[in-house]
Amino acid sequence: MRRGDLLFVVIILMCLFLSFFVYASDGFTNSDKVVPRISKTTPMRNHFTNGSDFSVKYSEDDLKEIKLNIDHQNITKTDCLPGRNQICNFEIDLSAHDNQELIYYFTAEDQSGNIGFSKTTQVFVDTTTPIIENISYFVTNKRIDIIITFIEENLYKIEYLDNQNSRPKWTNFCTHGIGRCEKKFTFKGGDGPDLTIRITDKAGNRFERHI
To answer: What is the pTM of this model?
Structure first.
């Protein structure tokens, strides 16, 4: 082989080697091409929220951060756990958007810069605490008739807790009513009732009164 031909072969081999080295290095440093997967978000579409119940379910082993994007605001968390089917919770002050409709979505980014997006979801904001205007009741022996008047357009439920019960538990009082609910039931022990009344709206805002 002539000297010129040998030199040409050497140059070709060097070019091939350098090309392989660059390709291998790039493959090593950017081997993660899998986008983080977001499988579930809350609150659900067209549900109420007061800002305390945002969460995202995702799968990503090399997680960098999770972002909640709502009303042109970004809340970033870098302490969400990596792994499969993890859940990260968010809380945001939405008091400035009371009685408004907002759209939110989540993003999950890994250490390689891959970003996964959730679907956009519309929610209704309610940050106003329900108001119990008045509680009137009539007692006959151990039977009580209670009438509750309240202010809450998005009522979820009213419950009562009999504090004299050996194992007190919240019991349904009513789940509908336009400013007024009434119920008759038997209370436990004592000469009079010892009850806690709790009203909750569809966004999770609560208020309690004792009688």
So the answer is: 0.76
